[in-house]
Amino acid sequence: EVLGKVEKADAPPEDYLRGEDEPEAVLEGGALPTLATPDGLRAVDDIATLHYGLDDETAEFLVRNRVAALWNAYITHGPAPVQEALGGEGGHYFGLIRSRFQGEVEAVESLPIPAGWSFRAPGVSHDEPPTPPNLMQRRTAYEVLTRKRVGNWSGVGSGKTLAGILASRVADRRHTLVITNKATIEGWAKEIEHAYPDSVVHVSEEGIPATPPQHGEHHYTLLNYDRFQLPGRSNLIQRLAAAGVDFVIFDEVQLVKQRDRKASIRRKAAEGLTSLLSEHIGGDLRVLGMSATPV
């Protein structure tokens, strides 16, 4: 509900499509093969030949699901197994999966990194060039730029924080709001300053600017989820909209999915926030959900 229609920026390596809300064509045949294998990639064409066929929405879902699985394999294991899986002949949907994935790889690997990137991995001297973003970070930035509302479910320690920061610059966001755990706010602030030292970082409600940033400025407001379960949350949401927030990152997004009263309040506030921001800036709003915990 919070993210809207979300595309995963990273899919599990072995993902099976099953459950109450999955297409009937998938359920009747049981679990599909591992999605990034030759059989898994050709399964969409097999489903399309059945007497009930595939509607456009279901077909697009299945194609995107396999492209995401290919990306996971590509990032985790390198190009060799992916090239092998994409080899040989296939039907219409197999060709679509292959061409879309290859087009995305070309776009992601050639993605320009905005000027000012200064992050250096631990142990890299400031006399040496900055550490370039990894492939997952590039892909997340590309997804935020092109698809606007995405999720990044990469594992702990994979660099999701830097992925969100890079995405804010690739998508040319003037005011990024990061909603996260209270314990991680300081870490976010340090990572932002390490990646782009020209950033203006606000770590409290008092620091929220009254008006949107000027052209060329990049502001980051870091707030913890608890701020969105307090009585003044409606006023806070109005202030954030007035401050020109155009990108929202929900870090540890499972905190708005938990089934308790506080999580429910946070979820409603988050939904109200994204709804109001959408009214202010229309389709230009970007939203990124991040978690290493299944949601």
Q: Element order, helices and strands? A: EHHHHHHEHEHEEHEHE
* Tally of DSSP β-strands: 7
Residue fraction in strands: 5-15%
Percent helix, as a range, is 40-55%
Question: Which class of secondary structure composition applies to the elements?
Answer: alpha/beta
Can you give the mean pLDDT? 84
Biggest sheet, in brief? 7 strands, parallel
Counting DSSP H or I runs of 4 or more residues, the number of helices is 10
Q: For the record, give the distance between the C-alpha atoms at the N and C termini, rounded to a whole number.
A: 12 Å
The dominant shape is globular
Unreliable stretches: 4-33
Q: Give the strand order, joined by hyphens, for the main sheet.
A: 1-2-7-6-3-5-4
Radius of gyration of CA atoms, rounded to a whole number: 20 Å
Short recap of the structure:
The chain is an alpha/beta fold and 295 residues long. 44% of the residues lie in helices and 11% in strands.
Helix and strand layout, with pairings?
Elements: E1 7-8, H1 24-28, H2 38-48, H3 56-77, H4 79-85, H5 92-109, H6 135-147, E2 149-152, H7 160-170, E3 175-180, H8 185-195, E4 200-202, E5 219-224, H9 233-242, E6 247-251, H10 261-281, E7 286-290
Parallel strand pairs: 1-2, 2-7, 3-5, 3-6, 4-5, 6-7
